[in-house]
Amino acid sequence: MNTSAMLKYKPNWEETQERFKAWWNRSRIGRPMFHLSCPREAPLGDFIPLKKGESVEYYYTDVDNKLNVAINWINKIDYIAEAYPNISMDLGPGSLALYLGSDPIFAADTIWYKEVVDDWKDWNPLVFNRENSWFQKHLQWIKELTQKAEGRFLVNIPDLIENADILSALRGPQTFCYDLIDEPELVHELIAHVDDAYFQAYDAFYDLVKADDGSSSFTAFQVWGEGKTAKVQCDFSALMSPSQFREFVLPSLQQQCDKLDQSVYHLDGKDAIRHVDALMEIDSLDALQWTAGAGQPDGGEACWYPIYDKVRVAEKSLWISVGGSVNEIVCKVDAIVKRYGPDGLYFILPQLSRQDAIDFLKKADRDWS
Fold it and tell me: I need a labelling partner for 2 at 20 to 30 A (CA). Which of 10, 42, 151, 331 fits?
């Protein structure tokens, strides 16, 4: 079980928790939130040698290797502002596909999932089996990691992923596009099965990593919340019309957000922007995270303000990744705060030098509160 009262290397953890609570609720607590880190003035400990030449699978599945990588990082990097030490042990983005019958394809930068469905009639209903070997191994790895974290890190809920994205992984995106047209009623049934499987898996991992107060941390997106917390998404929506998204995906997301205590939607790529209006109709969705995609301006650029305008009208929070030089970051953040105010803003920043980080936070407290 993770600890909630304190983290060994996060002196302002209680303040950080209060800022997260305010961010989720769009309530006032001073300056915006910042995920910010910088090099430590002196390492906390010696570098732990890591094994080399192992299989690609080893780097995803060996608990001690994951832990040593994280320890080496925290030995040299200081988590300041609202950044906090956390550790993930994902089986790729979408491991729910593994628990429903796919097999992993391990690659250096991610894990893919084998397309295994030739005919949905052989797979409907999609049944979540707790004895699935990948699910059982994943549970055991997360359990071991939680035991070994020892108050140094929060262990994250893994990136299960949901709804049409899982069906697309099992079936293949091109073929699944045809399924939406040829067998819409079957697709509705399958998404309902995925919804059920999602929470059976989510609840099992949540029970392992939740703090004594019920709070939890979700992988990759650096978010902590008081209860069941997660990122939700539908990257497959880039291939869907607005009417298809409303028909097949929106009810699933609504149900998912209703059951979670805190949720942030991962909007990925320009082809997904057309679904923002529908997403903002989900009352129980708390925040939106925008990923512009390769070759596009980062989240701090004014070209994305039309997205943010809709999010703010819907009274939801924003998760914004901002890059560039220190001066460029300051200018982008300043413009966004002036446009929207400081409440409900969470900026993800690149690692800065210690002095730049200190100066940045001084400006934030002085000018953006």
Answer: 42
